[in-house]
Design a protein that fits this description.
3 helices, mainly beta, globular, 2 domains, 5-stranded mixed beta sheet, 6-stranded mixed beta sheet, 281 residues, Immunoglobulin-like
Amino acid sequence: MTVVLVTPWAPATRSDAAAGPGSGVQVTVNERAGRFLTIAALQQLADVARRPLDERSTSGRAGSSLRGGVSAAALTIAAGVAPAHVTRFVVVLPGRAPVTLTPAEVADGVSGPEGVNAATFDPDYASGDSAVAVFSRPMRSGDDANLADELIPPIGRPLTVAITTDNPETLTIDAQRSAGEVDPGERVSFSAAVAAAPGAQLTWQFGDGSTPVTGATVSHAYDVAGTYTATVTAVAEDGRSGATAVAAVVVRGAAVPTPGGNDAGGGGGGGDGLGAPSGAG
């Protein structure tokens, strides 16, 4: 299950623009003191590679944009939470009533918080097992197909998301990678440790859609040029869990196939079904 939270943004020109510099999400976990996560940082972990974040569309007399989208998996990892252990999201836009979302409700499709004009959760997003919150505005004319000039004005305050998990304590993970820039097919080593739970199971996803592997120390080879972010989740025997992202790995040059598979780790597959992050973090 993937939730994509889309915050309002304002383009600088008619041609295109990124999410406004003040756009972001204020996140709290289990009612503890939260932190502000910028859209720019969260987009580096977005697991929505199957559909561009800047895709724009029109329907009837309204237009919408996915610019500024942030996946719930990215949001929870950035907040240090293992996505599989989330039980509830409470989403609040300034001046609007809170909307509580459970994984089951999101899978069924639910009404989202109202934006400057409107926002809905679309259960048919991408492969059909995800949901996206789409902020829309009325079209000014029947041929108003270029939405980049006048989408949603900035609201000056961030989206707020309160995350509740099925375990009270979030584990802190210390994760490293051996190289920040490599050639295609060159292996990168990743390692992680959890001081508060040395025996926790560590599951890695490498950001390229490959099968997750488990282990405290693993390695992976990226075949295609690009920028990738690996993420690791930890689950202790007593149920405590956590997650984090590792600094980005830049793969130079053209695609080179790697014979014999890509992954080497301390265990088999598995994981929390985070999806494949599309960028760096």
